Write a sequence for this structure.
């Protein structure tokens, strides 16, 4: 099996373990992060209602203009964290649980979390 396939399977197993314990509620929704090779995505989800309360992505053209170096950089990830936090706070969300999506808490994933914390989300 190729290294990329092994890495993907490891991440999916880790994500299943995390999701078994992490659930977003109405008072404390889940901040979920996904990264592709080209973009990074974050969304605030109320799992009990099955509803996405706020989302941000480096693929959005309005956000893409605000960062340099492409949508896969740490600067872009920090901006995505800040943007999703602002949008969540507009909906009245102050506290969340962080779902790192099976990724190591490092680099772009950490940048999203730092950006969200900087704009006032607690987790």
């Amino acid at each position: 099996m190729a290294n990329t396939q092994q890495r993907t399977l490891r991440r999916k197993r880790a994500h299943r373990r995390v999701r078994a314990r992490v659930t977003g509620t109405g008072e404390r929704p889940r901040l979920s992060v996904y990264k592709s090779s080209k973009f990074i995505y974050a969304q605030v989800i109320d799992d009990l209602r099955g509803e996405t309360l706020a989302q941000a992505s480096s693929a959005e053209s309005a956000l893409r203009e605000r960062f340099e170096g492409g949508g896969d950089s740490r600067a872009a990830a920090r901006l995505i964290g800040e943007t999703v936090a602002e949008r969540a706070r507009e909906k009245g969300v102050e506290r969340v649980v962080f779902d790192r999506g099976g990724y190591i808490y490092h680099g772009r994933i950490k940048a999203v979390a730092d950006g969200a914390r900087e704009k006032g989300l607690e987790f």
User: Anything to note?
Assistant: The helical segments are 3-21, 61-64, 74-90, 108-118.
